[in-house]
Amino acid sequence: AAMAACYVSASSAFVITPASAPPAFLRPASTVTAIRMTATAPEPTTVKLSTDVPLNGSPGSATDLGTPWSELGFEYRPTASFVKMTYSNGSWGGAELCRGEPYVPVHIGATALHYGQACFEGMKAFAHADGRVAVFRPEENAKRLRSSCERICMPPLSDEDFLSAIRAAVRDNIAYVPPPGSNGSLYLRPLLFGSGARIGLQPADEYTFIVMVIPVGDYYKGGLSPVDSLVVTGYDRAAPRGVGNVKVAGNYAADMLPNMDSKEKGYPISLYLDALTQTNVEEFSTSNFIGIKNGPGGESEGGTYATPISGSVLPSITNKSLMTIAKDEGMVVEQRDISVAELEEFDEVVACGTAVVVTPVGSITLADKKCDYGEDVGSTTMKLYERVRGVQFGEEEDKFGWMYYVN
How far apart are CA 77 and CA 90, in angstroms? Predict the structure, then answer.
């Protein structure tokens, strides 16, 4: 079996050492001996590394998926490595690129386990036809992660360390980036959690940051096709002045039961109302809400793009990007309260986020009332989808400077 191993970073330099070597905190930062494996190599080879993690293959070259690239779906799959950093004694240590088993040791008293002190991000890397690979707007994810950390008393990473970790994770797992034409991407999941032991309610003294990567396809089966939504009436997603506006782990645990209830009733996606009055739309389970009123002739130009403004809604980077595109298409963009009654007035409704990108909503059901938006993808929804995907896959000019290239 292939050996597990870790790259260890001093500043921005990454080196790799055997798993049998002493732990990272016992090794000098000047370590330069390295072990590197290709995505499919049974044994490691020894090389010396520069300040950047070398490319470990090329997009789509991994041979151990067991599934065609075009049929990936959205689920966990093992890849070559993950990035790890540890915060202790008041500062973040160097990054490790860990190979082998996909596990990290966690103390039984870790605050993430007892008090939910954890947050995460989601982003994607895309292979372009020219062989380059780019991540979509990771600087925005760095900002949002920092906001989440500050809200639950965790030490944030610098943008430089965050981007360096993202770059390393993609470059070492580049073989798992789905190739051009597959409609897939490499999903990145940065996770930061309290790993230090506390029994009394207080922040941890140690934190762990990891970046795991997974090749993925469409979040919902069927790709870009309308899904039906059910308004959740027995539960709230987030309380006013709570943590709904940050990406903390507990927000998603609270959604599991109502989400499963909706799915059992035949609704793939749930829609939440504001917790205080139950009269305004907030967001879908894992996605922002967009309501579209088309312009003259059913065109996007002259139409309205409306999305809820609320202190309990997570600011979606995909939504922020789509708002920019909508303005570029001549639409009026409104961030405001959206009442339940207004659901009847929209021509199209969209759920958007990193995982789903753009998902058209075919209908929304609230008790015995149903708002229909059609069985086909709306023209404005399609235009927004094609434009953002065009930028992500390198098929359209990146006029807003959103793509972060790793090679």
Answer: 34
Answer yes or no: are the C-beta atoms of 179 and 60 closer than 8 Å: yes
- Please give the biggest Cα pair distance in the chain: 68
Whether 399 is catalytic is no
Helix (H, G, I), strand (E, B) or coil at 383: helix
**pLDDT, average across residues 263-288:** 96
Neighbour count for residue 198 (Cβ, 10 Å): 18
Q: What is the pLDDT of residues 347-400, one digit of tens each?
A: 999 999 998 899 999 999 999 899 999 999 999 999 999 999 999 999 999 999
Can you state the percent helix, strand and coil of the chain, rounding each to 5?
A: 25, 30, 45
Question: What local confidence, expressed as pLDDT, does residue 376 receive?
Answer: 95
The reported pTM is 0.88
Per annotation, catalytic residue among 84, 124, 247, 293: 247
Confidence class of residue 51 from pLDDT cuts 50, 70 and 90?
low
- Distance, CA of 320 to CA of 336 (rounded, Å): 14
Contacts by 294-298, CB closer than 8 A, 24 or more apart = 294/347, 294/348, 294/378, 294/379, 294/380, 295/330, 295/331, 298/347, 298/379
Return the amino acid letter for 282. Answer: E
CA distance 144 to 158: 12
Q: How many CB atoms lie within 10 A of CB 161?
A: 19
Alpha carbon distance 204, 112 (integer Å): 9
